UniProtKB/TrEMBL annotation:
GO terms for cellular component: DNA-directed RNA polymerase complex
Keywords: DNA-directed RNA polymerase, Transcription
Lineage, top ranks: Bacteria, Bacillati, Bacillota, Clostridia, Eubacteriales
Name of the protein in question: DNA-directed RNA polymerase, alpha subunit/40 kD subunit
Top-rank taxon: Bacteria
Keyword Transcription tagged: yes
Listed SUPFAM superfamilies: C-terminal domain of RNA polymerase alpha subunit (SSF47789), Sigma3 and sigma4 domains of RNA polymerase sigma factors (SSF88659)
One term of GO molecular function: DNA-directed RNA polymerase activity
Ranges of residues in domain RNA polymerase alpha subunit C-terminal: 6-59, 103-161, 204-257
GO BP: DNA-templated transcription
Originating species: Eubacterium cellulosolvens (strain ATCC 43171 / JCM 9499 / 6)
């Protein structure tokens, strides 16, 4: 590219400068490069500004031309280094290029090999790692570096100068290559092979000669000679324009200047079209106007990017990124404003339009301004000697004139102040609060009044749901206003009400047992730390202790137990299906138990639910099991529960009869084992009515003997190996008329071959564990539903079942359906294969990851075991035998976790939301169902479980956020 051949008409000089140079026979860039500032000052009609303009152009083209020279014969380019490189490098424009070269090549200060260790360390410790950071620092700037001394500063300057001088060939090579890569549109105009594509662009973005802004003479000369559009003349040079009849110097200059302006304004897009980007053919001004033309009728509603693209209906060559760029320019020009995912039209402020109005006099302006500031008609009338009515008329008429003027000039019907019109005319709120919280200044309030807008009556709380009438930013202000009587704690707004604050304090400070008296101190201290002024309606005082204690004990965010101890427990954040299934409350009838029995019999499950003692379990059951359910469930005094009617004395007497003679310690142990009662309570309270049977440390009751005949009848009927004592008594009554029930005692049952326990009898087995193991393993496939119901009272059943499952002797392949390992072995499945499956799953999932058998499968997990085609429930039960995994039943499915932690429904859902950052509520439901196999029938089930966490739910967007910071960040980022 021969830069020196460029005409000075095409390089953007002013007409004054161009004409002066032409008069001096300076017609090309090459002619111009030989001049200096001093020689240019000698040229006639060149003022100081013109000289400065030309000097800047000379510097620019020297930078471009000095480093590249094209051989006329060979066509090859060679790098040319200026004769006086040290002088060349002092030019600011050349310094910029050198700094750019250093930056792009990432040349570090280590390249200064001659630099002393001290100087190097001073730079390094001051944070200077690259040469571009220090290359042209002055001596004074170097001295400002921490601990820098004069000798080191001079040394750095000298070494830098030497390095740049030694790199001059590389620098000029860089400039040469850059020029080849980045030609200007004026360079490309000289290439005939590009004229077609340039002309294509100009025709797509053509300008009529009449609209080019030419002088009348130049315009008429072109039109009269058949030139109607810019595309007709874009390639014409000065000499060609002079050949047009009656076209003088001034007209030629005018035409060339306007062509140059067009090319400069469109250069980037023209270069893009030349590079093959067809989308650049479309004029930005055209797209810009189309965007602005979307807004009449939209008002303050705004448009999202998707809505803008849909309404524009642009050709596919116009990319979304380009539209975004144009929208960005409109925002920068304050034509549009971007808030909360949407673009809004910017309207003029009424006060500004009023100040600059030329259609009303100053007196009328003053009247309106005073009214906007809240002054009354009477006050203005008194000051001006007019009547109140006359002032009102002037104000009303003048406002109308200003609005008409604004409409004619802009095409807008709305002012910026009208943004609040919908809120003002629909909702009820205080003027002072509106100014303080919602941004409705006094002048805006009065503007609406002056325009006869009537005040609304709706409750402002409902405005939060009004997403059609109110944009999100304003709804956010309203939410903050409604939250003004709240405090922000752990990512949540909390009402300044004692009941709300109690939950916060329990959640934050009562993770372990805290007495009620300690809680009082913690609560009041928390309020003081939050700088909440003393208020007897908030703080704990002597007057409210009793009522607050009663209320707190019923709350569902804590467990209340013996000695007024409380502990935070999220009752509503868990799925209790596994717990209730394990306790099998439906199988209990006419019995009383201490929850201590459940703690002993089902320790593993209760540990998973983080229930630490019988008192916590008692309080939990009271809060999750309805009174009267499960055959008359009732919570007695802690820790006892009762089902239906129960005669404790009769129950103890039965134990005494069945085990007489028996020592007091053994009797107490049997009663405690059967019903879970505290041995101390049994001795102190429950044995008082049996003193007649007590003698010298032994309780004794004579056991009646059964006749041989009756024993044979009963023995022949008792064909099963296990019976409850009550069942045997019922059978005896049915078989023997007028049967004496006292004959059903250990003596007679033992004679029939039974081992007798407190409430049941067993034969043909040495222990209950042996009996249950045979029951659960004798068949290859067993439905244990009936067994769970029948043996719910007996801890040995649950423990034996758990042990067999843990050891993989039996596997639950569907709920309550078990298969024996021997059958699996016959099918080719071994314990080694199961272990390999568990190992593979452990390697596949990440530490701390929640998963299910279904999610594993969907994630692409493959293992040999899966080829057998069992259900996900089967594979999940294989995994829970591995102690490296934690698990829980959640939403009807088994959810596992890699690691040994207590997991709950709340921790699971919260984890999923945090993984996404934010997620739509229905998308979360779909993920839990599709990915994990959970069964969620209603959205509120999932949302309810994350209450009391940092998770934030926006009802309007129906979206869950990991915390409020993410919520606000998304609002700020928006949808573009």
């Amino acid at each position: 590219m021969n830069i020196e051949a460029l005409s000075i008409d095409t390089i953007g000089l002013s007409a004054r400068s161009t004409n002066a140079l032409h008069r001096e026979e300076i017609h090309t860039v090459g002619d111009m490069l030989g001049f200096t500032e001093e020689s240019l000052l000698q040229v006639k009609n060149l003022g100081k500004k013109s000289v400065e303009e030309i000097v800047e152009k000379i510097k620019k083209y020297k930078l471009n031309a000095v480093c590249t020279e094209r051989g006329m014969d060979s066509g090859e380019e060679k790098v040319f280094i200026p004769d006086n490189f040290d002088e060349w490098i002092c030019e600011d424009v050349n310094k910029s290029v050198v700094r750019e070269w250093l930056t792009e090549n990432e040349i570090r200060i280590e390249a200064l090999e001659l630099l002393s260790a001290r100087a190097f360390n001073l730079l390094m410790f001051a944070g200077y790692d690259y040469l571009y950071q220090i290359v042209f620092l002055s001596f004074e700037e170097l001295m400002s570096i921490s601990r820098m001394d004069e000798a080191s500063a001079h040394e750095i300057g000298k070494v830098l100068t030497r390095f740049i001088r030694n790199s001059k060939e590389d620098i000029c090579t860089y400039i040469s290559e850059k020029n080849r890569k980045n030609p200007t549109i004026f360079d490309l105009l000289l290439r005939q092979d590009l004229h077609d594509v340039i002309l294509q662009y100009v025709k797509a973005n053509d300008i009529e000669i009449e609209k080019m802004g030419l002088s009348n003479r130049a315009k008429n000369r072109l039109l009269s000679n058949g030139y109607t559009n810019l595309s007709d003349i874009v390639f014409m040079e000065r000499s060609e324009l002079f050949r047009i009849p009656a076209m003088g110097n001034g007209s030629v200059d005018d035409v060339l200047r306007n062509i140059h302006i067009y090319l400069e304004e469109n250069e980037q897009r023209m270069l893009a079209v030349i590079s093959g980007d067809d989308s650049a053919l479309w004029n930005d001004r055209f797209i810009r106007e189309k965007i602005l033309n979307l807004y009449p009728g939209v008002g303050f509603g705004g448009l999202s990017l998707a809505e803008i693209l849909e309404k524009l209906d642009l050709p596919k060559q116009v990319t979304v990124e380009r539209v975004k760029h144009i929208i960005g320019l409109l925002i920068a020009d304050k034509e549009l404003e971007y808030v909360d995912y949407r673009c809004y039209r910017v309207y003029g402020k009424f006060e500004d339009v009023l100040k600059n109005s030329i259609v009303i006099d100053d007196r009328s302006k003053t009247f309106i301004q005073r009214r906007l500031q809240g002054e009354t008609l009477e006050a203005i009338a008194l000051d001006t000697g007019l009547t109140r009515e006359r002032v009102r008329q002037v104000v009303k008429a003048s406002i109308k004139k200003v609005k008409n003027q604004y409409r004619l000039e802009t095409g807008h019907e709305l002012f910026d102040e009208d943004y609040y019109r919908y809120l003002y005319e629909n909702y009820d709120f205080d003027k002072k609060d509106g100014a303080e919280w919602l941004g409705i200044s006094v002048s805006v309030w009065n503007y609406l009044n002056l325009n006869d807008v009537k005040k609304g009556k709706k409750d402002l709380q409902t405005a939060l749901e009004d997403h059609r009438g109110l944009e999100m930013g304003l709804r956010l202000k309203i939410k903050n206003y409604l939250n003004r009587n709240k405090i922000f704690v752990d990512g949540m707004w909390v009402e300044k009400r004692r009941s709300e604050l109690e939950e916060v304090v329990v959640r934050k400070f009562c993770k372990d047992d805290v007495s009620f008296s300690e809680f009082i101190e913690i609560f009041n201290h928390f309020l003081r730390d939050e700088e909440i002024p003393y208020d007897e309606k908030l703080y704990y005082t002597e007057a409210v202790l009793r009522t607050r204690k009663n209320r707190l004990s019923d709350e569902r965010f804590l467990l209340w137990k013996q000695n007024e101890q409380i502990r935070y427990y999220d009752i509503d954040g868990q799925d209790y299906s596994e717990l209730l299934d394990t306790l099998n409350l439906a199988s209990y009838e006419n019995i009383e138990l201490s929850t201590a029995k459940f703690m002993k019999d089902h320790a593993e499950v209760l540990e998973r639910y983080d229930i630490r003692d019988q008192y916590e379990l008692h309080n939990l059951l009271r809060k999750i099991v309805p009174e009267g359910s499960y055959h008359g469930f009732h919570c007695c005094r802690m820790p006892d529960i009762r089902f239906g009617e129960f005669d404790r004395d009769s129950a103890i007497l039965d134990i005494l009869i069945d085990n007489s003679p028996i020592s007091i310690d053994d009797l107490v142990a049997l009663i405690s084992d059967e019903y879970g009662y505290d041995p101390r309570v049994i001795i102190a309270n429950y044995l008082k009515n049996f003193s007649d049977y007590y003698h010298q440390g032994i309780y004794s009751i004579d056991q009646k003997q059964m006749s041989v005949e009756n024993r044979e009848i009963l023995e022949n009927a008792l064909i099963d190996e296990f019976y409850y004592i009550d069942e045997i008594r019922r059978i005896y009554r049915e078989l023997v008329p007028n049967a004496d029930i006292e004959e059903i005692n250990p003596y007679n049952l033992k004679n029939m071959g039974f081992q007798v326990y407190c409430r049941y009898a067993l034969k043909n087995h040495s222990s209950l564990e042996e009996f249950f193991e045979e029951l659960l393993t004798k068949d290859d496939i067993v439905d244990i539903t009936a067994y769970r119901n029948r043996f719910a009272y007996i801890q040995s059943f649950s423990s034996t079942l758990s042990e067999l499952r843990r050891n993989l002797q039996i596997i639950e392949y569907e709920p309550n359906q078990i298969i024996n390992i021997r059958k699996l072995k016959r099918s080719g499945i071994t314990l080694d294969m199961i272990q390999e499956y568990c190992d593979a799953a452990y390697e596949f999932v990440d530490d701390g990851e929640y998963f299910s058998a279904q999610s594993l499968r969907k994630a692409g997990f493959e293992a040999e075991m899966q080829e057998f085609g069992f259900s996900d429930w089967f594979y999940a039960n294989l995994l829970i035998s591995d102690e490296r995994f934690s698990f829980g039943i959640m939403f009807g499915n088994m959810i596992l976790f890699k690691g040994n932690e207590r997991i709950t429904t709340k921790t699971f859902i919260t984890n999923r939301i945090r993984e996404h950052g934010s997620i739509d509520a229905y998308d979360l439901m779909s993920e839990l169902a599709d990915e994990y196999g959970c069964i969620i029938t209603e959205k509120r089930e999932a949302i309810y479980k994350v209450q009391g966490t940092e998770v934030y739910y926006d009802k309007i967007l129906d979206r869950l956020y990991a915390n409020k910071d993410i919520y606000y960040a998304e609002l700020e980022e928006g949808g573009f």
